[in-house]
Amino acid sequence: MTTTQQRTVRDVEQQPAVGEQPDDAFIHYDHIGHGSTPAAWTLSLTLIVGSIIAGIGFVAEIWVLAYIGAACVPLA
Questions:
Q1: What element of type H or E holds 39?
Q2: Taking a C-beta distance cutoff of 8 angstroms, is the pair 17, 9 a contact?
Q3: 3-class state of residue 43 by DSSP
Q4: Nearest-angstrom CA–CA distance, 52 and 50
Q5: Whole-prediction pTM value?
Q6: Rounded CA gap, 61 and 16, in Å?
Q7: What pLDDT, in 10s, does the model give residues 51-62?
Q8: How many Å apart are CA 16 and CA 25, to the nearest integer?
Q9: Could you tell me the CA-to-CA distances from 5 to 2, 8, 16, 21 in Å, in that order?
Q10: What would the pLDDT profile of 7-20 be if each residue is shown by its tens digit?
């Protein structure tokens, strides 16, 4: 039987515990999940632009524009 050895990893920074050697290529040394990726920015901009277009379409009663803007929200 083989067993896997577990290492203690700090929660916030995902760094190995003191005295451990980092041998895993997938350990992140920066804060994970701050949303500074191109995908996160694309999502945010699509939601903002879609909301603005839909808002203008509803106020001006241009229903095609309102539907196009509303379609951008689930697209994001």
A1: helix 38-60
A2: yes
A3: helix
A4: 5
A5: 0.54
A6: 58
A7: 999 999 999 999
A8: 12
A9: 10, 10, 13, 13
A10: 555 455 555 566 66
Dist. CA 61–CA 56, nearest whole Å: 8
User: For the chain, what's the residue count?
Assistant: 76
Question: In this structure, what token pair is assigned to residue 58?
Answer: 């509803």
For residue 39 the two structure tokens come to 């995908």
In the numeric block, the tokens 């277009």 are attached to: 53
Residue 9 bridge partners (DSSP): 16
Nearest Cα to 15, choosing from 36, 30, 34?
A: 30
Nearest Cα to 49, choosing from 65, 75, 21, 69?
69
